[in-house]
């Protein structure tokens, strides 16, 4: 029996000694795989998926951070994304969300170079926390219930032990001779990483980044586009309860089913959103051609999908046109209701409001 207030040094390496091929688990996994494959297939038909998924990845960053009570508004976040110069006005939560997104992309590069290794995990955490700290060396890290402050879990302690457990996890992740269903493996891996809790902070976010990277690593997705945190934030109580029940009651089944359902639902959701964004983009291209005539510029439309909030300066910085030209473009698109002008602070922003509606629903 695990004592919540004592370091859980007896945490065992994966895989657990349970039936991972049971009909219920496999049935749920097949459904999730099918939906993921649909999402993957659709992404592969898109000429420029990176532009369409940029905002979805940012929403994932926002929600994954919100699970840790780092909460930002859409206004703050999207303004922060285009304000390299006036950083002083950016809220710290918005900055953290942007760092999360950077950490995810840098993790993707590291993944291609060296896989999901301990070093990759450490680098992701360092990027997102903007720190040089690594694996915990001190004791005293505890997980408390966010509202009652009651201690719910004390992770293992001792740097050597933590590193040993991370190496075992790394080997498990890269072992493809074990014939465990890959999505079931993802659920096991996410629990294990959170149970090791190798860092003083940033474990939840690093673990959730690893989940999407793992899908890319296995080529189940071409891009880290799964909006997984939208499910977790909606079912956060369950997320906490089930992580605990694996430790306390070896209740793996319910945990694995929870993660498989999260994958199914969010694969369908991500697919629907990308389709809607693609359709909106086609409509906006048509309207922009009408409105801007011979000065129509494809890069401008791409920009409006990468950055749903723009200022005149954003267009200048992206070499769409000089101040006067940029201003004319934006005004014309606002008149055609493609963009919604809005004054925030002293600055005028032009918002791709239909895109915002799709991503924030
Ligand atoms: N009982 C538990 N056992 C293991 N991990 C847990 C448990 N409850 C919650 N967690 C994980 O711990 C995360 C919070 O850890 P923390 O290091 O503060 O993450 P972050 O810094 O990203 O905020 C949660 O998001 C969850 O993934
Ligand atoms: Mg935290």
Describe what this molecule looks like in 3D:
The protein has two domains: 23-273, Orthogonal Bundle (Fic-like fold), CATH 1.10.3290.10; 275-360, Orthogonal Bundle (Arc Repressor Mutant, subunit A), CATH 1.10.10.10. By secondary structure, it is mainly α. The two termini are 43 Å apart. The chain has helices at residues 23-45, 49-67, 74-82, 92-114, 118-129, 159-174, 182-196, 203-217, 229-234, 236-249, 252-292, 298-306, 312-317, 323-335, 353-360; strands at 143-144, 151-153, 309-310, 340-344, 347-351. Helices cover 63% and strands 5% of the residues. The longest helix is centred in the last third of the chain and has 41 residues, at 252-292. Adenosine-5'-diphosphate binds at residues 67-68, 143, 152-153, 194-195, 197, 201-205, 207, 240, 243-244, 247.
End-to-end Cα distance: 43 Å
Which hetero compounds are present in the coordinates? adenosine-5'-diphosphate, magnesium ion
Task: Return the CATH topology of the largest domain.
Answer: Fic-like fold
Largest sheet: 3 strands, antiparallel
Structural class: mainly alpha
Question: What share of the residues lie within helices?
Answer: 55-70%
The secondary-structure element order is HHHHHEEHHHHHHHEHHEEH
The strand line-up of the biggest sheet is 3-5-4
How many helices? The count is: 15
Mean pLDDT: 95
Low-confidence sequence ranges: none
The CATH superfamily of the largest domain appears as Fido-like domain
